[in-house]
Design brief:
single chain; mainly beta; six-stranded mixed beta sheet; five-stranded mixed beta sheet; 2 helices; 34% strand; globular; disordered N terminus
Length: 331
């Protein structure tokens, strides 16, 4: 999987003339609302925002610890119900002209990328139906993009309890190119990367970093570096936001494949106990999930020239999707 992002379109008419249509999707039904969890760090891609005054492409990078609610003239609001509106915190803004002719004066030519944190105030945990006992999603919230002080239109946003995304090297560099293969990363306890020449050992404690694991205790203000000791909560007692499984009979698995829905094969694998899941102190919206490779796992083959990975980690959230990570495990 390249990465999981909010995708939407906003149209504004400050200085350029609109001359073309903007495809929203190519399918047999209209696009579903984008999903986001409280505190999730995502990139919002927007067509139809004009460059800054004078024609300069918008670009800005937030510095310091706390992140602002506006960059390069752009701000984002999340609206949940009639009386709750919160600003997102922005990390960076960049804009590019996607048209082959750089002189084309069409708003649809400009792709604006906004890296932001969804407010932790958003309520994403599901509602339990008192009659059936089943959980159901919260009603839709709204996402609004404002440009140069002008309020923008609202787009539907589906709040969810968690929307996990295991971090890759591309997240650190903010590489959003669709042609880049961005492998999810597993770390040894000392911070080095689990790799073919540095495999995890049976019984070893390892960890991943993630975005989008949702509600924490204690709560942390949006856009602020996390203090120590901020743990991920359960949705309700006994229902975690994240589960981890391992298949030691899968060879050379791809670590950049798309998220997939859980199926019978993955659900039959026993979950690995999670040692801890918490926000990383000093970082914004980044979680650290620590777990132990089972000592009892049986390895089909060792890693080598023909076997790039001999185990497949399956990390999934409560929404029923998992991400796969091919890793090397040794005795």
């Amino acid at each position: 999987m390249k990465r999981y992002f909010l995708l939407t379109t906003a149209i504004f008419f400050p200085t350029f003339a609109q001359t073309g249509a903007i495809p929203a999707s190519l399918d047999y039904s209209k696009p579903a609302a984008v999903q986001a969890a409280p505190g999730q760090v995502v990139t919002l891609f927007l067509h139809g925002i004009a460059p800054a005054y004078g024609g300069t492409l918008r670009a800005a990078q937030a510095t310091g610890g706390t992140k602002p609610s506006s960059l390069a003239g752009i701000s984002v609001r999340v609206i949940q119900g009639p009386d709750a509106t919160w600003p997102a915190s922005l990390f960076a803004v960049r804009q590019e002209n996607e048209c082959s002719q750089l002189t084309v004066a069409d708003l649809t030519c400009f792709l604006t990328s906004v890296r932001l944190q969804i407010p932790f105030d958003l309520i994403g945990d599901p509602i339990r139906n008192p009659q059936t006992g089943l959980f159901q999603l919260r009603p839709l919230a709204q996402l609004a993009i404002d440009v140069d002080g002008r309020p923008g239109r609202e787009f539907p946003l589906q709040p969810v309890a968690d929307n996990s995304h295991i971090l890759t090297a591309c997240d650190a560099s903010w590489d959003t190119a669709g042609t880049t293969a961005c492998d999810r990363i597993v770390y040894h306890a000392n911070g080095s990367v689990v790799a073919e020449k540095s495999p995890a050992k049976l019984g070893e404690v390892v960890y991943v970093k993630a975005y989008g694991l949702g509600k924490t205790a204690p709560a942390v203000p949006t856009g602020f570096p996390s203090p120590a000791g901020v743990a991920v909560t359960e949705i309700v007692p006994g229902i975690p936001r994240l589960s981890i499984r391992i298949d030691t009979n899968t060879l050379s698995a791809v670590s950049s494949a798309q998220r997939l829905p859980s199926d019978l094969a993955t659900s039959k694998l026993p979950p690995i106990p999670i040692d801890s899941a918490e926000l990383i102190p000093g970082e914004i919206g980044t979680y650290k999930v620590t777990f132990t490779i089972p000592k009892s796992a049986e390895l089909a083959l060792p890693c080598g020239p023909e076997v790039k990975s001999n185990s497949l980690l399956l990390i999934g959230g409560s929404m029923g999707y998992y991400e796969g990570i091919g890793i090397c495990v040794a005795q």
